[in-house]
Structure formats: structure tokens, C-alpha cells
Automatic annotation (TrEMBL), chains A, B:
Record InterPro entries: CinA (IPR050101), CinA-like_C (IPR036653), CinA_C (IPR008136), CinA_KH (IPR041424), Competence-induced_CinA (IPR008135), MoaB/Mog-like_dom_sf (IPR036425), MoaB/Mog_dom (IPR001453)
Annotated source species: Blautia hydrogenotrophica (strain DSM 10507 / JCM 14656 / S5a33)
Gene coding for it: cinA
Domain of life the protein comes from: Bacteria
Residue runs in coiled coils: none
PANTHER family: NICOTINAMIDE-NUCLEOTIDE AMIDOHYDROLASE PNCC (PTHR13939), NMN AMIDOHYDROLASE-LIKE PROTEIN YFAY (PTHR13939:SF0)
Residues annotated as domain MoaB/Mog: 4-176
Any one Pfam family match given in the protein's UniProt record, by short name: CinA_KH
Similarity section: Belongs to the CinA family.
Official protein name in the record: Putative competence-damage inducible protein
Length: 421, 421
């Protein structure tokens, strides 16, 4: 089934928001085995929307549109698609009632906010449409079927779109698909993208079904192995030998082969398995590493205490870094990272403590310690290991890389992978 | 100048990466006053790329392509565009030398990583192209001009693309533009999207030049006022009266009218102005609030200490929450938020301390305190103010909203905006 995504919104063309919906829907289409060849973004402009919708309906079987279903005058998606398909708009009593309930509930929780009349526009739907209830907002989704083509209209806000897609659209599309794509991710840390590309070149050259594709993330690389199959069981069988081969090639640097498992989840799982309590002492990452650990539901089982010791005073007071260390070698040094990790263990009573201290820039770099210099310490079983990094990029990028490499370092320390470092 | 963005990469169509480049380039095009009507994503497929490039060159003057310039076999952008424009590929000696230097430098810093031969493919460029040096990678950018059309090819990794665009492409495009769009953002916190839309409906109805457009962010709304003008001076003059009107309507809830100023920067600036030291005590946000403050370069002037008190033990030990409080009303309570904020001030010696404690889910909710219940305390000048929130969405969304509302709360406390709360 050839499919196409159309995101509607001048705000996307002006660069005011990042189009995360397309990434989400693309992944869902891939899982459903739908052939997604194009994503298009078009503004809130009637003529260009019409042109885009018409072209998409010509070259694809199913089009999925997001955005432009809201209450404002700019919201034209429903009107345009209905017009292209020749469908008339009528009021949907069920949706009208749902909007009413939603508004009443909203008013209760937000006594200072006004309910505005423009919301009722959202109860108008093309005659014959399948209406998709919106559990998290007022604009319903819509499925329109005509002349063998399907148009699926979804609200723009991700927290409205995602549950609607998963609960209502996914099952609808699943029924229509004969083949599926079964795919599995192999997630690798500690090795760079081009090295991985070189090491799997023979596999890529000989690929037919399954295929293999590398995706570079900050500080990690994901390899997606995808098989076209008639069902999940056959897909699994096709994918298995290639996954086994990758395990031989990348060994301990593979932290997950599970689709949804993040590096922080892998770390939290390891800590759980070994019944270890973690604490963190962060300078340049400023709490981002702790926040990443707390991304994992149930992190409380292994993580209780974090220190953001952004100032030297905090490093001394909270985790007992020595005055002399700060004076002689400074806060961005192997010695300071070591003392932070050790002090963090002592101050929290945790079994493992990871520390991060570095220069994220844009200021603060010197010739000896340029921006991007980061030291990390990991105190575990009475021993402190230290790693030194030299990251490139801007402040955000350096801090982001620091967080990922800290997680990889932590993983290596707990599993004993760091013996050569 | 009609412009179009084409992102190349099957990884985008499979949903493996979020297309942040398009957001960035769209914003840049808007600033340059270029008319951007479409963004398209196409996979690493020669035929469909050719089709997309041809269509884009028909309907637009300038096309900007990103991705597909790398060393792998999948990277086809340069080859396809050169073919469509009828340009031959030749080796560029300058680029070859740069790749050589880059690789040598890389090898020095990464002794364990191998340099692979596929990199030399990147030194081949269409004959007559303007070559854009890549300061952060091996693939150069390219500007191709033919038959009155311009194709600009940029590398996919954002840390390579952005500096290349700003230093080399922006000045190139600036010279070509007669008119510009001058735009200004008015950034508002504490008011919901639909209420703002209703309150500016009259302004939107009567708009010609400048125009006004609302963008909902998590916990805030940005209004973009855009004027078409012959230069920046005229643009500023056109935009000014509308900005003044918005200031009258939304008053103290406007935290910035500066394009780049984030809510965390507004807060850090306020703290700097008033020479206040901030500390933070976080439970459900788990360090994300501190990390957000540390996003701001120079945050060290106002922020030194953060506590991530994820466990009850940490709440007691680090910021002296009373055992009785945890036992009777629990960690997610007005009382606990109050004690965390007060204790945080005492433990850090800061002038202001903000605390956040809540239930981010998916587990841990009860009938009295459902998932999304969050309490925040702000201790300032000996007084602790508390706010209670009920957020909706998943774990990530609840934590993200908590961070934004915490920043807004902090801002209100320091400026005295919270008197009614």
C-alpha cells in the first residue's frame, strides 16, 4: 500500500516547530509494512493544499494528513480534503457532545481560562466519514474513503495524535495490509558511524531481504534490519541470522537489540539486575544525566540522589572536592572528576557514582583545556575509573554527547567492559 | 524567490530520525524573506529523487537539499542533482586535501578508529560548482547554478550543516534577495493557546502587513509578527505598533520579545539583574529543570547548586524534609514542596530555591493524587509560595510541562507576578 504523509502548517514552513509527527508516523507506517515514498509539508494555504492533496491522491493509495484541524481560521485541512474528495460537511452530534464535555472538564481545572466559540467548528465532519474520538483534545480525527483512496486526517498536537493513531488508526490500517515489514534494531555505543559503515559494507552489498541500514544518533549508532514477510513469525526468522552476525562483529558494544530500549533503560536494567544504587554528580551536564535516568519509569528502584555541583563551592560542600584540587588542577581535571565520583558515593551512600565535569562553552576554554574537554569519573567497588573526552560542537551538542558517553561509561564500568580504558 | 527544501534519506521515511534540519532551514529562509511553499522528504532512491528534484526545479527558483552527501553507497544526492542539471563530476583537489587533513586529525584523537576508503568519494564535485568547505566533517557542501536555477546541497548532520549555512550559504542568498521578511516573536507563558487565539482574533482578521501567527509550545505560546519590507529598518517600523498592542493585551505574561530568548534565559537574566543565587530541588523532573537553566551560557553566575532528591531518603537527607511530612501527606504534597524549597535554600545558601515534586507516571497515581499531580514550592525572601498543577499526557510530557511551569513560576515569584496565586 503506497502511502504519503502531508503535514499542514505554515508554522512548519517558517521553522517554528520541528515536525516530530512525521517521524512518528513514518515509523508506524514502516511497522505496518506500508510503502512510504514521500513526506510533504505545505502551509495553511488553500490552493497549495489542494494541489498537494490532489497529487498525493494520484500517486498514493493512502494519505495521512496532520494538523490544520483546530478551531482557528487557519485550520483548513478538513475543508480542503472534503472539497477535493467531493464530500459535504455536516455537524456530528456525537463530536459536539464530546467537545462540550471536554470544555466543561477543562473549565473546572482551569478556572481562569475562557472557553471560546471557535471550538464548535471542530464538530463539523465530512458526511460518511469515520470519526476518531480525541481523548486529549477537541478536534476529532477523520478517515475518509472514496474511489479506492483513503485520507486519514489527524490533529497536529503529538499528545492528541499518538494515542489516536495507536488506538484507532493502527488497527484500521493493519487490517488492510497483506505483507508486513518486520524490523529489529541493533543499538551500538562506543563506535563511530563511518567505522561501523565500513565494517558492515559487505553485509550491505549483499543485502536483499532482510536489508540493513545504519542510523547515527548522538554518541551511538543504530542498525535497523528489516525483512519483508507475510507475518511476524516469518519476519523474525529472516532477521535472526543477520542479528547474530552483528553480535559477533560488535560484541559488547551492542547495548540493546530491543526496539524500544534506550541506553538509559539498558543502564537502569543493569543496575536493577545487580541490585546497585546509583548516584550522580554533574557539573557541565547540569542535571541532564539524572533527568535521562529518570526518563525510565521505575528508575527510583536504582536512583535516589543526584547532585548538580555547578559551582566550585557546591563541588566542595556537597561532594567534598578538595580546595587544593580546584586551586591546582581546576574543576575540569581528572583529579576533580575522581573526587566528585568518590565524594558522591560517600554523600549519597550509593554503590556506584558517576561524575561529569567539563567545559561546554562557548566561553571558558583554554589552550590546554579547550571547549569540549570533559572528564568523567566512575566510583564502583572502591575503585574510581576516569575517562577523558574531547567533544566537538556547540554547548548543547557537547552536553548532549557528555550525557550519552556518561551512560556508556557507566554501563562499561558495571559490566567490566572498561578494563582496557 | 520561491524556494523548496528537499531532505534526502530513507532513515527519515522510516522514522528513524526527526527532521530538525528542515525546521532550521525553514527559519533561515523566513529570515531571508524567501517564499518557502513546500518541504519534501524523499528516500535514498535514485528514481524518486530524480522525480522530486525535477519537480522542485520546475516550481521553484532555488532548491536546498540536505543529506545524502556522505561516503556510503546510499549517498546519492550529488550524483542525482548533477545528472538532472547535466553536470559532470570531477575530483576537487582542494576538497581532497581537506578530507586528508580532517582524517589525519581525526586519527590522532581517535587512535582506535579506522579511516575508511569510502571517504574519498566525497572529493568528487560537479564541474563548475561552488564548493562549501565543511569545518566539522568530510562532505563539502555545493552550490550549483544552471539555467537561472540554483541547487544548494548541504550535509545532513546538523553540526555540519548549520555552521556551513550561516557562514557560507546565508551571505550567498542574502545578496540575491530584494525584499526581506522582518519578523518578531512575542513569547507568552501562563495562558493557553485557544484563549490567546480568541483574544487576538480581531488582529488576525484585519491583518495584511504585518501578519500575526500563534505557535503553541509546551507550556507557552509564541506569536510571530511578520512584515514584508525592503529592509530591516522598514520591517521594524511596520512591526512595532502590533507588538505594542500585544503588550497591552498580555502584559506581564510576555516574558520575551527577543527572537532567541528562551524562558530559561529570561529567568537567568532576571536573577542576574537582581543579583540572586538560585538553587533547585527536583523530584519528578529529576534534574531536567537544572539542566534547562544550565542551557544558558553564563548560568554559573546565578546557579551553583541543584539537588535531585528522587528518593524520600534524599529528600530527608539533602534538604531536610520531615519524616512526619512524608509519612502523613507524602512526597507529592504542598507541605513537602514547601519543605523542599525551604530546605534547599538552607542547604545551598541560595537566595531563591524552587522545588518540584509530583507523579509523572505511568505508575504511582491514586484517586486523590492522579498521575500528573505536581506541587512546586518557591522559597524567596523568607516566604514559601506553593502552586499545584494537574498536567496531562505521558511521563515525558508531564515532566516537560513541569519544567516549563516551574520556570514561569520562578519568574512570577521573582518579579512579584504571583500575588494572586
Amino acid at each position: 500500500m503506497i502511502t504519503e504523509l502531508i503535514s499542514v502548517g505554515t508554522e512548519i514552513l517558517l521553522g517554528n516547530i520541528v515536525n516530530t509527527n512525521s517521524a512518528y508516523l513514518s515509523e508506524m507506517c514502516a511497522r505496518l509494512g506500508m510503502d512510504l515514498y514521500y513526506q510533504t509539508v505545505v502551509g495553511d494555504n488553500e490552493e497549495r493544499m489542494k494541489h498537494t492533496v490532489k497529487m498525493a491522491l494520484e500517486r498514493s493509495d493512502t494519505i495521512i494528513l496532520t494538523g490544520g484541524l483546530g478551531p482557528t481560521q487557519d485550520d483548513l485541512t478538513k475543508e480542503v480534503v472534503a472539497q477535493v474528495l467531493g464530500m459535504e460537511l455536516v455537524e456530528d452530534a456525537h463530536t459536539h457532545r464530546r467537545i462540550e464535555e471536554y470544555m466543561e472538564n477543562y473549565a473546572k481545572n482551569n478556572p481562569n481560562r475562557k472557553i471560546t466559540d471557535n471550538n464548535w467548528k471542530q464538530a463539523m465532519v465530512p458526511k460518511g466519514a469515520i470519526v476518531l474520538d480525541n481523548a486529549n483534545g477537541t478536534a476529532p480525527g477523520l478517515i475518509l474513503e472514496k474511489n479506492g483512496k483513503t485520507a486519514i486526517l489527524l490533529p497536529g498536537p503529538p499528545n492528541e495524535l499518538k494515542p489516536m493513531f495507536e488506538e484507532q488508526v493502527y488497527p484500521y490500517l493493519r487490517k488492510k495490509q497483506p505483507d508486513i515489514f518486520y524490523s529489529q534494531l541493533v543499538k551500538i555505543c562506543n563506535i563511530g558511524e563511518s567505522q561501523i559503515a565500513a565494517e558492515i559494507q559487505d553485509l550491505i552489498e549483499n543485502q536483499t531481504n532482510p536489508t540493513i541500514a545504519p542510523y547515527a544518533k548522538t554518541g551511538e549508532v543504530h542498525l535497523r534490519i528489516t525483512a519483508r514477510a507475510k507475518d511476524e513469525k516469518e519476519g523474525k526468522k529472516l532477521v535472526k541470522p543477520l542479528v547474530r552476525e552483528l553480535k559477533i562483529r560488535f560484541g559488547k558494544n551492542i547495548y540493546a537489540t530491543d526496539e524500544r530500549k534506550t541506553l538509559e533503560e539498558a543502564v537502569v536494567d543493569l543496575l536493577k539486575d545487580q541490585k546497585l544504587k546509583l548516584s550522580l554528580v554533574e557539573s557541565c551536564t547540569g542535571g541532564a544525566l539524572a533527568a535521562r535516568i529518570v526518563n525510565v519509569p521505575g528508575a527510583s528502584e536504582v536512583f535516589g540522589t543526584g547532585f548538580v555541583t555547578y559551582s566550585n563551592k557546591a563541588k566542595r560542600k556537597l561532594v567534598m572536592v578538595k580546595k587544593m584540587t580546584l586551586k591546582t588542577v581546576g574543576a575540569v581535571s581528572e583529579k576533580c572528576a575522581r573526587e566528585m565520583a568518590k565524594g558522591g558515593c560517600a554523600a549519597s551512600g550509593a554503590d556506584v557514582c558517576l561524575s561529569v565535569t567539563g567545559i561546554a562553552g562557548p566561553d571558558g576554554g583554554t589552550k590546554e583545556k579547550p571547549v569540549g574537554t570533559v572528564f568523567m569519573g566512575c566510583c564502583y567497588q572502591g575503585r574510581v575509573r576516569v575517562r577523558e573526552f574531547h567533544f566537538s560542537g556547540n554547548r548543547a551538542k557537547i552536553r548532549e554527547q557528555s550525557v550519552v558517553y556518561a551512560l556508556a561509561f557507566l554501563r562499561d564500568c558495571i559490566t567490566g567492559n572498561d578494563e582496557e580504558s
